[in-house]
């Protein structure tokens, strides 16, 4: 049995014209409608449930909590081999990393999405959904992955890298988990594993998540944004630095002041790929995590505190 959980997104979006690939409204169709558009899945042992119905640019903590609980509930069923989550592309990399860290499942949890709405002349959602089901049903598959445009990405590596192309997602260090070719999963790397933080990390939070913001280093960056965040009671800051997480002197000084005042600060990079080296005398590194994934990691760390 494969369970498919719907959350909305472009894959469930509609436009007034089939030739309109950008002026659509996301999250209009139910998960049952998406399945009906994939005849090749008819007759498969599938269950479909709607967890949320939103544009993923509006993803929020409450939906993350509800989704994590729904995924775990299905994984706990002996008859369920894997779970598929349909999602929007905008924040898919954050949701996938969140589920990876909280659940770290031994069964496959496969997120998929689309860059074109369901009403497009050639929608990409049906193929992506079909592929995601194949990955979820693959013997030996495990962990949180993203199945998109025929490729399977590790939740820790996947990033959205293009605003329009249908193959928008990349594994930033190039290490694909698998490819899906004519419905056949060809494994290339290892399925992701991690130590699960558990639902308890987020279960007790009721509208009181820590506030963690991202600030960007750029030409002329200073500390005014950091000081404004301090006035707003920020709990954590991810600095998206240039290159190897480098920061202009004024921004660096403001972040160090925030750290002295009890705010948790980590450095990531605004580069598309590559780690930030942890070096003596510098603010702590987020490693190879992108700024948005470093934010998820910092949120979960602050919840534990």
TrEMBL record:
Class in the EC hierarchy, top level: hydrolase
Domain named L-asparaginase N-terminal: residues: 2-185
The protein's Enzyme Commission number: 3.5.1.1
Entry's family note: Belongs to the asparaginase 1 family.
Record-linked Pfam families: Asparaginase, Asparaginase_C
Gene Ontology molecular function, alphabetical: asparaginase activity
Organism, scientific name: Roseateles asaccharophilus
Protein name in the entry: L-asparaginase
UniProt keyword list: Hydrolase
């Amino acid at each position: 049995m494969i369970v498919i959980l719907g959350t909305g997104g472009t894959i469930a979006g509609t436009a007034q014209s089939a030739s309109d690939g950008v002026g659509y409204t996301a999250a209009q169709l139910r998960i049952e409608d998406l399945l009906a558009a994939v005849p090749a899945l008819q007759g498969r042992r599938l269950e479909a449930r709607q967890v949320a119905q939103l544009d993923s640019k509006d993803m929020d903590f409450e939906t993350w909590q509800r989704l994590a609980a729904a995924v775990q509930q299905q994984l706990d069923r002996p008859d369920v081999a894997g779970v598929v989550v349909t999602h929007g592309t905008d924040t898919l990399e954050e949701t996938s990393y969140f589920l990876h860290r909280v659940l770290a499942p031994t069964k496959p949890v496969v997120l998929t999405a689309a860059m074109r709405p369901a009403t497009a002349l050639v929608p990409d959602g049906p193929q992506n959904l079909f592929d995601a089901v194949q990955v979820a049903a693959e013997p030996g598959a495990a962990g949180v992955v993203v199945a998109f445009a025929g490729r399977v990405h590790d939740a820790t590596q996947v990033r959205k890298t293009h605003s329009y192309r249908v193959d928008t997602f990349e594994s930033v260090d190039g290490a694909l988990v698998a490819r899906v070719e004519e419905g056949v999963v060809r494994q290339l790397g290892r399925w992701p594993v991690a130590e699960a933080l558990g639902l308890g990390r987020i279960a007790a939070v009721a509208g009181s998540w820590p506030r963690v913001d991202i600030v960007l280093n750029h030409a002329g960056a200073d500390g005014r944004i950091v000081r404004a965040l301090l006035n707003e009671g920020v709990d954590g800051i991810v600095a998206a630095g240039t290159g190897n997480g480098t920061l202009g002197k004024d921004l660096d000084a403001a972040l160090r002041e925030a750290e002295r005042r009890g705010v948790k600060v980590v450095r990531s990079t605004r580069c598309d790929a590559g780690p930030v080296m942890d070096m003596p005398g510098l603010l702590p590194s987020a490693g190879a995590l992108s700024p948005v994934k470093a934010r998820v990691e910092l949120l979960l760390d602050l919840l534990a505190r």
